[in-house]
Design brief:
binds iron/sulfur cluster, 7-stranded antiparallel beta sheet, 29% helix, 23 strands, alpha+beta, transferase, purine biosynthesis, 17 helices, Glutamine Phosphoribosylpyrophosphate, subunit 1, domain 1, 4 iron, 4 sulfur cluster binding, 6-stranded antiparallel beta sheet, 472 residues, Rossmann fold, elongated
Length: 472
């Protein structure tokens, strides 16, 4: 399912490499493997030890770097970014990494996540005389680091990080140092790998596989890492809180071949399907998953229930995310082009349709209709995560509360609205059981969009689109 159909959009992906002569090219491949985390813009900043050079643009990684001359991006250190704008307009100046120059040197900044106090900090900075170039919340950190004309160092970054609140994974590059930081709750994923002697950092471990790097470890909540020619130094800039990894990374956002906080995404989705089968069995003939993000959960549901898993819906891989859908009629045509029912499998069957989540419900309705039109006798919808009833403030772009179907209707009503013969969601306990597999590792997940239990206070009154919310 494409993100624009689902109504959930990943926030961004970051990639960094230290100590490889082909740093820019490898960053390109790393970003390419994380294209699903942002399709609006991409960029790379490379350092040759004396100068930072950038190439960035709007669009997909391939499009942005189609005409890039990598011979001008020489250097053995680089950071890169794929962007989906959760904050800030879709303009070139907001495409990251952001690059800043001063008499004391240059700094590039790539950010995955969302600062919940960005609005207040921005106001303070503007009152003090700062002029911000972008509408992105990422720029705020750069101004905090340089506020007193200071050099970029472990001390100034630590001071700045202690002023921001929210979900963040930062990569900061100067001419001769790279800094890596993760928020004290570790809401967004960030891992370190090795490629020979080079250090590699990425939002998702699938990027390591892409370039032949080997996973080394997770960046820890509240950790600040400094890499330079002397090696890697780890410090802690804040008290480490209980980890609150975004549950939606497992449910929908991350690639199935990625490991998020030591748990493989495919395995966790399959477990969610199994738990769902235990909690919400169904009298049906076959199990069908909505491709691609629900396939793992559908396999799990089939395995646990003993029902056969069938490829009842096929996804057309060549319909791009940029497909233009200006009207409702064409939008419906768009889903028809993306998903096709396999009539010979569906006709006359009672189907358990597995989907990873429902946001607005419009796409679920169209898929149920599509299956019934193709001859399905019954369609029982089973959702492999708890109902989404609350917005996300930590970097995932979801619909507003008014648009979230589960925030406005009861289960039975939703089932009727999407035209299903029955509907059930996985419970919160079932999801936790499926994700938190290895109890020996410090684990914990954010479930705020499903439960309303926000692990971090949200800066309510100062920003109209940050309403007050329950704080754990
Ligand atoms: S609110 Fe939902 S989408 Fe946002 S970080 Fe928490 S689990 Fe992830």
């Amino acid at each position: 399912m494409h993100a624009e159909d689902k109504g959930i959009n990943e926030e961004c992906g970051v990639f960094g490499i230290w100590g490889h002569e082909k740093a820019a090219e490898l960053t390109y491949y790393g970003l390419h493997s994380m294209q699903h985390r942002g399709q609006e813009g991409a960029g790379i900043v490379v350092s040759d030890g004396s100068q930072l050079k950038a190439h960035k643009g709007l669009g997909l990684v391939n499009d942005v770097f189609k005409h890039a001359n990598f011979s001008t991006l020489q250097g053995d250190v680089a950071i890169g970014h794929v962007r989906y704008s959760t904050q800030g307009a879709k303009t070139l100046e907001n495409v990251q990494p952001l690059l800043f120059h001063s008499q004391k040197g240059s700094m590039a900044l790539a950010h995955n996540g969302n600062l919940v106090n960005a609005y207040a900090l921005r106001s303070d900075l503007e009152e003090e005389g700062s002029i911000l170039q972008t509408s992105s919340d990422t720029e705020v950190l750069a101004h905090l680091i340089k506020r007193n004309g200071n050099e970029v160092s472990e001390e100034t970054i630590t001071e700045a990080l202690n002023q921001v609140t929210g979900a963040y994974a930062y990569l900061i590059l100067t001419e001769n140092q790279m800094f890596v930081a993760l928020d004290p709750h570790g809401i967004r994923p960030l891992s370190i790998g090795r490629l020979g002697d080079a250090y590699v950092v990425a939002s998702e471990t699938c990027a390591f596989g892409q370039i032949g790097a080997v996973f080394e470890r997770e960046v820890l909540p509240g950790e600040l890492i400094m890499i330079d020619h002397g090696g890697l130094i780890s410090t802690r800039f804040a008290m480490r809180e209980q980890r609150k990894m975004c549950a939606m990374e497992y449910v929908y956002l991350s690639r199935p071949d990625s490991d998020v906080n030591h748990v493989n995404v495919h395995a966790s989705r399959k477990n969610m399907g199994k738990e769902l089968a235990k909690e919400a069995p169904s009298n049906a003939d076959i199990v069908v998953g909505v491709p691609d993000s629900s396939t793992s959960a559908a396999i799990g549901y089939a395995e646990e229930s003993g029902l056969p898993y069938e490829m009842g819906i096929i996804k057309n891989r060549y319909v791009g995310r940029t497909f233009i859908q200006p009207s409702q009629e064409l939008r419906e045509q768009g889903v028809k082009m993306k998903l096709s029912p396999v009539r010979s499998i569906i006709e006359g069957k009672r189907i358990v349709m597995i989907d990873d989540s429902i946001v607005r419900g419009t796409t679920s309705k169209r898929i149920v209709q599509m299956l019934k039109k193709a001859g399905a006798k019954e369609v029982h919808v089973r959702i492999a995560s708890p109902a989404i009833q609350h917005p996300c403030y930590y970097g995932i772009d979801m619909s507003t509360r008014e648009e979230l179907i589960a925030a406005n209707y009861e289960l039975e009503e939703i089932s009727n609205l999407i035209g299903a013969d029955s509907l059930a969601y996985l419970s919160e306990a079932g999801m936790e059981k499926a994700i938190l597999i290895d109890k020996t590792i410090h684990q914990g997940i954010c479930t705020a969009c499903m439960t309303g239990k926000y692990p971090l206070p949200v800066d309510g009154p100062k920003k109209p689109f940050y309403p007050a919310c329950e704080v754990l």
